[in-house]
């Protein structure tokens, strides 16, 4: 286990400490404004329920953006992130007036030619929300 | 349903979009990023979401955006995005297949400046049947 904030070696098998982000309705609204995605399933509980969702859900791209922040910290800056991909396996459900966790961790799966391949894991309330999350960074 | 004619075709956007510092600042604020000199890795969705919807909204293409759920997303970043950069967007319908009553469509959107691609993005869209 290697800590953020200290010096770390990026080599195959390196794992990074998990980080918990918190998602609430206000953050989802901020992301809607920042991304331009104003789909009501991310803001309006009545609407979300009417289309069969358990509650308001966070944008899949918000969870990916937060995982991207974790990745950027590993990479030492956004300029070092070359590829990033993820599957939205389950939604992050965001009831009113509480903070929901998004727990992110990562492992280095390969290092070659000045690039590292990173496998990321992201879950919320114990449920995996990103699948096959992978990135390539400059090292 | 996606018209078979549309699969494999690239549709070019007409307008150029310029990234502003306030757009980058807003995106960074959401994720807690303090370095706002470079756009975060997923920022380009801010541009490609609007652009690809506009480019692929022609009824002849047959993509019903009202039924779309985002299945997965991939970014390939050739050059970091900064405030003041301007891009044109083009979108390509790479594939379409029917699975369990839904239509799974892969759309690639490229952001280019002077015909040089800065970011390529792939979105898998699940069009609910």
Report on the architecture of this protein.
The complex is a heterodimer of chains A (139) and B (129). With 139 residues, chain A is α+β, with helices and mostly antiparallel strands. Chain A has 3 helices and 5 strands, in the order E-H-H-H-E-E-E-E. In chain A, strand 4 and strand 5 form a beta hairpin. Chain A is elongated and about 50 Å long. The model of chain A has no long low-confidence stretch (mean pLDDT 93). Chain B has one domain: Hotdog Thioesterase (Thiol Ester Dehydrase, Chain A). By secondary structure, chain B is α+β, with helices and mostly antiparallel strands. Chain B is globular, with a radius of gyration of 15 Å. Chain B is built from 2 helices and 6 strands. The chains are: A alpha+beta (139), B alpha+beta (129). At the A-B interface, helix 1, helix 3, strand 2 and strand 5 of A face helix 1, helix 2 and strand 3 of B.
**Quaternary structure of the protein:** heterodimer
Estimated radius of gyration of chain B: 15 Å
Taking the sheet with the most strands of chain A, its summary is: 5 strands, antiparallel
Distance between the termini of chain A: 18 Å
The count of strands of chain A amounts to: 5
Q: Helix/strand/pairing class of chain B, anyone?
A: alpha+beta
Distance linking N and C termini of chain B: 9 Å
Structurally, the number of domains of chain B stands at 1
Mean pLDDT of chain A comes to: 93
């Amino acid at each position: 286990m290697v800590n953020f904030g200290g010096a770390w070696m990026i080599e195959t098998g390196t794992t990074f400490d998990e980080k918990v982000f918190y998602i609430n309705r206000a953050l989802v609204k901020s992301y809607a404004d920042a991304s331009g995605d104003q789909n009501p399933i991310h803001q309006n509980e009545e609407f979300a329920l009417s289309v069969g969702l358990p509650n308001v859900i966070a944008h899949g791209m918000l969870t990916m953006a937060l995982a991207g922040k974790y990745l950027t910290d590993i990479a030492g800056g956004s300029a070092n992130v070359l590829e990033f991909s993820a599957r939205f396996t389950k939604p992050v459900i965001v009831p009113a007036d509480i903070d929901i966790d998004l727990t992110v961790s990562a492992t280095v799966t390969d290092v070659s030619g000045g690039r590292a391949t990173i496998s990321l894991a992201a879950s919320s309330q114990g449920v995996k929300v990103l699948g096959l999350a992978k990135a390539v960074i400059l090292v | 349903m996606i018209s078979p004619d549309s699969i494999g075709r690239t549709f070019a956007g007409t307008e150029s979009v310029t990234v502003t510092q306030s757009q980058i600042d807003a995106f960074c604020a959401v994720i807690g990023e303090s370095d706002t000199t470079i756009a975060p890795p997923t920022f380009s969705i801010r541009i490609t979401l609007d652009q690809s919807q506009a480019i692929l909204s022609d009824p002849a293409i047959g993509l019903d955006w009202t039924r779309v759920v985002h299945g997965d997303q991939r970014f390939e970043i050739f050059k970091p995005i900064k405030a003041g950069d301007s891009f044109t967007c083009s979108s390509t319908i790479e594939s379409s297949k029917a699975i369990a009553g839904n239509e799974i469509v892969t759309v690639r959107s490229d952001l280019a400046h002077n015909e040089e691609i800065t970011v390529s993005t792939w979105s898998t869209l699940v069009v609910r049947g």
